[in-house]
Amino acid sequence: MTEARMTEACILAFPARAEDRLRLALRSLEAALQTQDAEIAAWRAALRDVAGSIDGLDQSVGRYRSELAAAAGAAEAAGAEARQLERQATAWLGGPAG
Fold first, then answer.
1. CA proximity to 92, closest of 68, 2, 24, 84
2. Is pTM beyond 0.70 here?
3. CB of 24 within 8 A of CB of 33?
4. Alpha-carbon torsion 71, 65, 69, 66, what sign?
């Protein structure tokens, strides 16, 4: 069988007067509001960080798109030049025009 263990109870003092209870409740509320203010400030700072990251990402994507457009233009120009050189080589060799 298990042995029941008795522990001492810890009795918390509770203010007897209504004014004291109200004062205690207001102190607790004030502490909670201060904690909430700090958490909201931290949340806003985190949102600013996220906004900065998103702005940086947007700029990076814009640069990437510009580079892709430039690469596409260069590839198109190189393709056109290659076709022109092919036509010229075919003409020099006396082959059929293509």
1. 84
2. no
3. no
4. negative
